[in-house]
Amino acid sequence: MNSDNELIASIITPPGEGGIGAIRVAGVGSREFCSPFLGWNSDETDTTSPFYLKLTKFTVPESGEVLDEVMAVWMPSGKSYTGDEQVEIYCHGGRVVLLNVLRALYDAGARPAEPGEFTKRAFLAGRIDLTKAEAVAEMISANSQRSYSAARDNLLGQTSQEVERLRTLTVKLAATFEAQVDFPEEEIDPDEYSSLIKDVALIRESIQSLVNSYRAGIVIRDGFKVALCGRPNAGKSSLFNALLKKNRAIISPTPGTTRDYLSEWIELGGFAVEITDTAGLRDTTNEIEVAGQQFAYELADASDLALWLVDCSSENWRDEIAADRAPAALTIVALNKIDLPGACVSDDAEITLGGKSCEALAISCKTEQGIEELERRILAGIESRLEDQTDGKVITNERHKEKLAEALESLVAVSDGLDRHVSPELIAFDLKAVLRSLDEITGKVYTDDLLEVVFSSFCIGK
Amino acid sequence: MKRDCDFDIIVIGGGHAGVEAALAASRMDCSVGLMTMDASKLALMSCNPAIGGVGKSHIVKEIDALGGIMGKAADYSGIQFRRLNLSRGPAVWSTRVQCDRRDYNQFVCDIVNGTPQITVIEALAGKFLVENNKINGIADESGKEYSCHSVIVCSGTFLGGLIHIGKEQTPAGRLNEKAAYRLSESLDSLGFELGRLKTGTPPRLAGTTIDFSKCQPQPGDTPIPFFSPETQATERQQVSCFLTYTTEETKRLVIENLTTSAMFSGDIDSTGPRYCPSIEDKFYRFAHKESHQIFLEPEGNGTDDIYPNGFSTSLPEDIQLRAMRTVTGLERVEFRSPGYAVEYDYCPAYQIRQTFETRRVENLYFAGQINGTSGYEEAAGQGLMAAVNAVLKQRGEKPFAPSRSESYIGVMTDDLVTRSTTEPYRMFTSRAEHRLALREDNAHDRLIGYAEKYSLISGRKITDHRELEVETLGEITRLEKTRVNVTEFTELKERLPRKENVSLADLLRMPGMGLAEIESFDLSRNGVSRRARERAAVRIRYAGYIAKQDREIERFKKLESQPIPEGFEYETLNGLKNEAREKFSRFRPTSLGQAGRIEGITSGDIAVLAVGIKRHNSISQ
Chain A residue closest to B429 (CA)? Predict the structure, then answer.
């Protein structure tokens, strides 16, 4: 368990659009920590009264940028939900605003609350009288750091139903192998064996599609991540600004200006999109730049969509992109600077970037030609991602996804074992690992239902 | 040991649990009174004349590692030895020994009678002598009192035993024997919750009236797989069992007469084991199956008694006989005795601790069927555990509680104290989540440390085992290092077309390869014992899975090592669901891991409990 004195911050309102979105900061020194953002005096002369809700602006102290007009309240130690000192900030409900405010708090040193951590702290402090204990126990076990909306509950219900269905199938399968181990007279005939292989494949497919749905799930929950990348001076920061429609990134004609990275949230078709401007990718020996570039690739690889910018007014851009490594993520090549004389535009819908065939698009950040089309393409990327969610079964919880991935790994071992005809206790070993992973999602700890199934399906015993 | 009592320990019941308890306590230098109704019937096999089988054989090996008698008695009296599951992996290879019923019993009687610390008391136990919730001794049914420090109850089916054959009901623990009713009353008056369980046994057949030519012989295995490493050979004549089948006529007869069976007429409502169904049950519950296997098992060398395994029944005797005569080869069969069902009392095992001591009465221990288990092996394991713990408690030492990750005995003990009994508990390998690590071949490795610590086995056996382990490790190295030229063997060339040479260990890891299969490629194997070679082969073949299993065991140990303080107050623990509160208070788990194994408990409950324990500890510090 982490130190209970650390400052933690999280969004405490349900995801999605709403009138108000709330962020809670908890831990010793919450007020002092938040004061610079809220325009409160952080010293002894402060006049902020506890439980006094005040209208103020949330300002990033370093840049002076106002992120939102907010209401904020301070709750001293011993008199809050968690028992420790707390500040709650009520922002305008948009997801993008909330995420930007939260990021500012994280940048200043708060850390994200762990799943169930607020409840855990409250519980440890003896603040909550847990008469409705089930609810809290479930909250702790569900590892859900937010209170879920009714819609999300429904979503979760569907997911756990699906997990339960897969579990039942796996138990049946495991029982077949257990029966063979504990009752040597039981043998599997070859026909049954091939149907067992099919059953494993079916379970694998279902789990795989749940794992895939997480990609859709996190887009709904955390937003869609777009990385701007390409060689230096291709116009990444200009595009960043064009997309933000405001001047935030520092623009200069000197290649390599953006060594660190900048990122901002925008809203596109109702989705939160995080745009990240990365360092230019080129051959360099400058140490800082090398590090920046490596990081840029990491960002690009991990993004949902990489926009690879190319200065198509440069003479040998075709050779360059042939030599560059494409990011691992879905990539769109944007041929920038088509407004310049000498720009050599390609009409191809696709272009090969380092051996990878990518969608291509001509744009000009300067004249904004093609920018709208680019936004449409980003939206299309989001929508294609949401197709991963099948019949509403969407995984939004990272722990669930990890457990499902574990289950999948064990199922691969099961398939492999079946192919090699390894003995049944080894198949059963891996099937039990699948069950354990699934049980960790639903919160079951220990079950004895395997033998139940064996007893009811096989006429066993001499 | 204090000698202010008649005995240090009194064991009630001379069955498989009772004799292991008495012998273990005597090895730990205690004086033991072994109370039994008939001193000539020690360790009698009331049902099947066989020891071992899948899962059970692992317990026998563990008992042997802890100095118990069961394995040696089976080896001595064995008339057919088999290893089951040889087509599966080594973790589930299981030894099963068909025994000469009389010689098994005689062997145990001789050992017990030759043990000076044990006094056999021929009496029917009647009443527990208890003062301040502490046991002082026991009175027999005639009222004679015996004082002692601890009592271990191994009452088997005799506790409130009632035998059913059709509509006939007779108070008895075994056919034509008495039952212990006063003892049940004494338990009841002490406040123990008693329940009823049921088991059954088939008729015994006269072998001379069977046409074995119509049945399929099933010989034993060679080399003979003994239970105990101390057994070198047997002089005894080895015999075959025979396999036959029920017919359409059997099914028709049994189904037609279902209502006359004690099991189906409503006379018995206690639960029987589903894994050992009666013939009535088999035809009723698995109606789609037209025929069932019946194994004809000889009961010994000097007798033609046959045990028809698979034909347990509580039908009226005349119908039993008619039905039996419809089985192929049994058309003219005669009975030596009829089959029957027996109901008996047990005490749901939430009432005992992991040490087998009852929570209600100090120094009173339960072992075997009284805890809701079934099977000789399960009973024997418990008897041994109860005795060791009773002695340790008298000495003021820490209890003996091997964990689920190191023994089947540990799995059984933990299962007993964390679940409600719904049917007689039998061991299955699937109950052991760390199955791949709990093998017959490593039972001694797993438990010899305990055996040494409690002086349960001799120093020589410990040295022998250490030497075997050194030899095994040497053999593993040899198998890893010895390379085989693939091109020299056509069969290898076909399977490994791209390899020039492989190690013997690599060969062993290939599917379908075992010690026998690599023999022809292994030219440098000299003087390595068979046991060492087998042990080495298992470890090599299983290495990958054993490593995975070890990681799981590590994870398992984390929760296991978080103790719940004795007497922890669940009533005042905030946030616990009522169901969880009830279960925790009932089963009183000793660790977070064990708490999680109680049925119906969720990880949420465990989280709340963990937080509660943390608070409890920080307050009491």
Answer: A182
